[in-house]
Amino acid sequence: MRQVRCDPLLAVAGDDLVRINNGHDADHRPFPPRIIVERATMQLGSGNYNLVLNNCEHFVKWCRYGNRISGQAVAAKSLLLGSALAAMGAPPMVAFGAGIAFLTFATPASKMVNRYFGSNFSFF
């Protein structure tokens, strides 16, 4: 079972390069560091990992911003949408277009909603 753990950064990264990714700070107001750590600590030992609905990107964004946005999951959902439409008999270009449209508009729509409702509102 996958669960939230607290491991030393060097043990996780090994010889790989790491970087801090606060790229959403311009669009979403982050919590103070104390709150981010508190939110992460509250989840120690918890599970229910799901690649599309509750992955590591969802977790860190929830800790930092209070919403569960995952660019990885949005991309996966757009692929699933296109595949489902194709399986239901939609013409290939329609299925492909629907997947691309979802991928194109999901993140900007989420940013717009967060600007209006505040950074702790989750749309996707």
UniProtKB/TrEMBL annotation:
The chain crosses the membrane at residues 84-106. It holds the Pfam family LRAT. The lineage of its organism: Eukaryota, Metazoa, Ecdysozoa, Nematoda, Chromadorea. GO terms for molecular function: N-acyltransferase activity; phospholipase A1 activity; phospholipase A2 activity. Belongs to the H-rev107 family. It comes from Necator americanus (Human hookworm). Keywords: Hydrolase, Lipid metabolism, Membrane, Transferase, Transmembrane, Transmembrane helix. Residues 1-72 form the LRAT domain. PROSITE patterns: LRAT. This is NC domain protein. PANTHER family: HRAS-LIKE SUPPRESSOR - RELATED, LRAT DOMAIN-CONTAINING PROTEIN.
